[in-house]
Amino acid sequence: xxxxxxxxxxxxxxxxxxxxxxxxxxxxxxxxxxxxxxxxxxxxxxxxxxxxxxxxxxxxxxxxxxxxxxxxxxxxxxxxxxxxxxxxxxxxxxxxxxxxxxxxxxxxxxxxxxxxxxxxxxxxxxxxxxxxxxxxxxxxxxxxxxxxxxxxxxxxxxxxxxxxxxxxxxxxxxxxxxxxxxxxxxxxxxxxxxxxxxxxxxxxxxxxxxxxxxxxxxxxxxxxxxxxxxxxxxxxxxxxxxxxxxxxxxxxxxxxxxxxxxxxxxxxxxxxxxxxxxxxxxxxxxxxxxxxxxxxxxxxxxxxxxxxxxxxxxxxxxxxxxxxxxxxxxxxxxxxxxxxxxxxxxxxxxxxxxxxxxxxxxxxxxxxxxxxxxxxxxxxxxxxxxxxxxxxxxxxxxxxxxxxxxxxxxxxxxxxxxxxxxxxxxxxxxxxxxxxxxxxxxxxxxx
Length: 447
Ligand code: ATP
Ligand code: MG
What we know:
By secondary structure, this protein is α+β, with helices and mostly antiparallel strands.
């Protein structure tokens, strides 16, 4: 029904650059009844409208509903100022970042409410590359629509009338499976280089084709990402990696030349055959988990992405005579220092990453009490999953991962029977002690 309607309304209509009047699409055509949006977003719109303001569900949620995807969250746009929004709700607070927004709490939901943004002008503060630094000038709804990135993201849904307001031919573009930039793509990428990453992510996630006009400049403008603050890059990378389409996203990033300097070293990792195999396996695994609704921890993800860098440093340090475990810790710190700076990996996530990495050598110990102690580690599960990935990628013997799979599954008696003889470990320890560079954890490897 939607398709039929769209082709009727939009056949032959060229995409507009700046439309003051939206096309109003009734529910009989688009089919999105108000029960399809979250109750929190509906109540937020109703409250604002009752207070005399305009309020719509906007952006990704409307786009996703139109193409039959499950929206991730429901954002609201309004002509009320942040202060007016805050006052209209019992539980709401203004979040001041690059864009000032209001978080409205409705039961379990937190809604992001944004005030319509005005047109950028010569007074807008930018950096020397044209990236917009401050953006809190409010404007009309038409101006707000023109400020959004892609036509499919500039759609407004009014729960009261169940209509969709379309300023930039977004519904038609969606129907044609095209992700089209509003305005001149180069200018829009200069204003905000993250839009290049958004283009790749949204296209991969929604099965859309990036319009050639928007796609062409990406390769030559990729360097602009270097000026984007680390925290913003981290947020976007996380969205990309947890989109459920990470393999497609990363493959496309590489095709567009966007992987250079993004995750610094992502290019290096993907260019080593072993590294690429491991990262791609890990991303396929993450995609699968997310599609099954199992979620994925950022710590685990970044631990896998950076592991081969750790291996490279670790090997170098060991070759230089450093003993195994101190060398691992040093390699971990080196990699996290470099990545941490560029990506603003939070302290908590860095802690998770280190836990997963530092437990890896302990899987080699299969005698005595140590396997039992490892099972009790709070990060055992993630570390074990990580070990399995390493085995699947061919970095370590599958036999070790299989041993741990079985060790967890069997009962107490069988577990005890699986243990490697302590004796041989002792012997090995004694043998190794003679060598100056050996250390305690080394001994149990592949006994
Ligand atoms: P997702 O499915 O990941 O939530 P989304 O399009 O909803 O996708 P959000 O980051 O939630 O992404 O942004 C909400 C809306 O805000 C977008 O649909 C778009 O209209 C606008 N927007 C977000 N980021 C930008 C940007 N960098 N430039 C212009 N408009 C943006
Ligand atoms: Mg969204």
